[in-house]
Design brief:
The chain is an alpha/beta fold and 273 residues long. The chain is built from 9 helices and 15 strands. Strand 3 and strand 4 form a beta hairpin. The longest helix has 11 residues. The two termini are 20 Å apart.
Amino acid sequence: MRIAIQGEPGSFSHEAALKAGSEATILPCALSADVFSALDQGNADVAVIPIENSLAGSVLEHYDLLLAHNVAVQSEWLLRIRHNLIGVPGATLEKIRQAYSHPVALAQCRRFFAEHPGIEAAPFYDTAGSVKQLMELRDPGVAAIASAQAARVYGGEILQPAIEDNAENYTRFFLIRPRESLQPESHPDKVSLAFSVENRPGSLVDALQVFAGLGMNVTRLESRPVPGRPWEYVFYADYQLERLANADLALKMLTDHCSMVRELGRYRSASSV
């Protein structure tokens, strides 16, 4: 199986993709749009994308790309995010003066930097990419903050593990594939969909009442602007599903209140990995 990810080898997306298939071929992509292009062009069988972090919130670009491409969500899972301070072999924590990583990762390790004022937080485009750069520089005074997978991939040494501020740090990942190759889940208990409503009083309430009327719990609701149409929005919702037939019924009922409805996937709720 060929799995496309956004980011360098050793990224958290790489770590998550290995949960989908340890023998899979990982196809790193520089941009999220490239991940979806790999699916469109048949260069990848599936893709693994982060959709939400428990601390940093949603990856909004990925919602837009899900709607723009003919793909569907096959499954989801949660990955516990553990940030590690990584140096070149032989480096020591006492000699580190700079630590590179993605700005989100740096922001999730503020306590570490407060406790080590001599270490400067330096933003970089990617967590794993910061380890790759580190191993090219071979500077014992420079470190990176990334996953243990990144240390293994590039030969770095973990100087201090688990430096994140909050232990309850999880990222929710989607496994997506082209719709024509989607393998239906036999016992889904969760649905993701997108919908737009008319710009009139009560239209959103009417749409949400569909879920309430069917006894379905909406666990997430996100709005995104429609490109080229100022002040119009697409709503992305996740809801819990107890009876499979209700998913079809919800789609049918939503069409009475919405100008656009598109189901993004039916799947099993995630457990942490």
